[in-house]
Amino acid sequence: xIIKNASxxxxxxxxLSKDIWIEKDYFVDCEEKxxxxxxxxxxxxYAIPGLTDIHFHGCVGHDFCDGTREAIDAMAAYEASVxxxxxxxxxxxxxxxxxxxICKTAKAYxxxxxxxxxxxxxxxxxxxxxxxxSKKGAQNGAYIKTPDLEMFDKLNEASGFMVKLIAIAPxxxxxxxxxxxxxxxxxxxxxxxxxxxxxxxxxxERGANHVTHLYNAMNPYTHRAPGxxxxxxxxxxxxxxxxxxxxxxxxxxxxxxxxMFGDERIILISDxxxxxxxxxxxxxxxxxxxxxxxxxxxxxxxTIAGSATNLMDCLRTAVLKMGIPLESAVKCATVNxxxxxxxxxxxxxxxxxxxxxxVLLKKEDLSLKQVILEGxxx
Length: 378
Prior knowledge:
Elements: E1 2-4, E2 7-9, E3 15-17, E4 20-23, E5 26-28, E6 39-41, E7 45-49, E8 51-53, E9 58-59, E10 62-63, H1 69-81, E11 84-87, H2 96-111, E12 120-121, E13 124-126, H3 149-158, E14 163-168, H4 175-182, E15 187-190, H5 197-206, E16 210-211, H6 227-234, E17 239-243, H7 251-261, E18 266-269, E19 281-285, E20 288-293, E21 296-298, E22 304-307, H8 311-320, H9 326-333, H10 335-340, E23 358-362, E24 368-373, E25 376-377
Parallel strand pairs: 1-6, 2-7, 8-11, 11-12, 13-14, 14-15, 15-16, 16-17, 17-18
Antiparallel strand pairs: 1-4, 2-3, 4-5, 7-23, 9-10, 19-20, 20-21, 21-22, 23-24, 24-25
Helix pairs in contact: 2-3, 5-6, 8-9
């Protein structure tokens, strides 16, 4: 396959007019290596890598915590259809036995191999149960636990060592020991926490290097108490997740965040729940009732409960409504998440020897024209 006439997002973060060459399911470096010379016309389009969502819970009526292959498959089909070609779905704060079954199911699903027209399952984001009750947000407080090395190891092994990220509140008992002993095995993300600045800095010094949905479920940044936000800005190795659905964070705060962190350290996520891709109504998240109206998903007490927006729509919102440069938004939804979970050698950019995941977006409004998943037109 050859994609012609598109403005292609390159590994140095620019758009260039060039051809894209695909042989079977990989990008190649010249037309001579392409056996099927079918041409896809990208006139009037941007060509960007397939997106990677490292933090979402569900979509189209299904949740990762359903613990079924059918749920994962439906989610993977929907995500691929909107241009999200790699997924790392998130668990919630649930009982150990429930989490164990979720992990076993994910392992079994991945071992079945990539299915046609499905995003690739690249790992698990374990959001809970090692969080702070005071900042639980939409997590179920009944199942919150202090960090438990043995429990984590059991779950990770059951998943086939697919856990790529784990959420930790650094101020709770056992958190620092957990960070020190497991930071070489999994990305440790500070999350659902009331931590102060100094405690967050100590956690980063011990090996944490990620922040879950910045600004949400944590103390706000102030000039006398900069908290987790300030500690993350000060620590250059730290990357932060950002939900650009137009609900979780004000557009001005999003622009300020890009100025503080730069596009090297921001990862766009959707944090989507099962209502994404469906109409308004009553749904659930982690076993708790959720009402969805437009982009807003809330628990009965009004707490925001994930988003009802997929990652591609978050990218569009960041660019078209929040004033983030397209080049930066694409980087934060493709390159950065792939690097974060250790798959950038295979995904996240349009480059020879990487899997051929491409999304064509119309230049006038960033609407979807075509998804190419591992060399196949969807």
